[in-house]
Amino acid sequence: MENTSNINYHESKFMDQNGTAQTIKVPVVQELARLNNLPSIFIHKPAQTHPIPPNTSFEPIDMAQLRDNTGRVIELEKLARVSREWGMFIIENHGLDPWVVDDVKKVVKGFFELPFEEKKSSVGTYMSTDNLGYGRSFVKSADQRLDWIDRLAMKAAPKGSTDGLWVWPNNPANFRPVMERYVKAAREIMDELLQALAEAISLDKREFLQYFDPETSEINVRVNYYPSCPRPDLTMGISPHSDGSTLSFLMQFGSSNGLQVCKDNQWITVPWPCNKLVVNLGDFIEIMSNGRLKSTWHRAATQSDMDRYSIILFYNPPTRMEIGPVEDGEPIKEYKKVVVGEYMKHYYKVSPTATKEAIMFAKVS
Predict the structure, then answer these.
(1) Which pTM was predicted?
(2) CA distances from 266 to 45, 47, 61, 157, 271 (A)
């Protein structure tokens, strides 16, 4: 890697084609941005981005209307339409206290503003399936094209799931309680949305929620930091992927215009203002709905003049839970039953992929 002798590195481990354990050093993107340096290993050829087509709407879902008997039917119709068209939707009037959201932004920014050595001394790195802690994800080979991103990942639920692991930053000192307060409030909203999505496509309202339990369901937190980039036209913040989740709950700050979705075989920048929240449909809801809802194929772009942060909560049934397509008398099943943990092992094994490959694990052959 060229011109990276004076910066710090993350270490990533992977198994090569011969089954031999390998370790690769990956430059810390935050430091490359400071030096205005773009090593060749970060250079991609991203497909062209297109403006949102005319007469296409991305209407926000008003949760106050979903909670109101007089407005619920109309809002459910909108939810079904936007979800099917985009595989994601904006929510507004969700009821999250603004100070809870603001505190999350403060601790996230506070962590990434620390010098590298302080970040490393604040939290560990665990290169297991979940890629917890501070480091890199989805590095599979020494010649792989890498994304322009630094990340922090934790498991917030179930309770005690990170006992014995050093994955919560101790600097800022209030990082964990702030994030856990946000996760608790967001879970209530996601439970509401699981019921609303089922109703929106004419299923029993507990069709998706039946797989979730307050004590054992999983919520993984991922913080993505995209520093400004000298050549946004040659890089990707995150390569194209679908989410290994049921729902993914997203907050962003710093800038907008980073999230892009593949719609009608074109990449479109999602019209997502920083003061709104976005919910992505993940692979598990595609399986549960027997394909009535599709997980979205999306990516993140970089920008030349500003940093962007996103905080994602990945909401899933318990690892040992078996999920399957809805049993509603429909004779044709596109998907088979899968165990959540087994699906996720496959997801991490094959990712990243050029196409929506991971979901094929659950397809009826």
Answers:
(1) 0.96
(2) 15, 8, 24, 36, 15
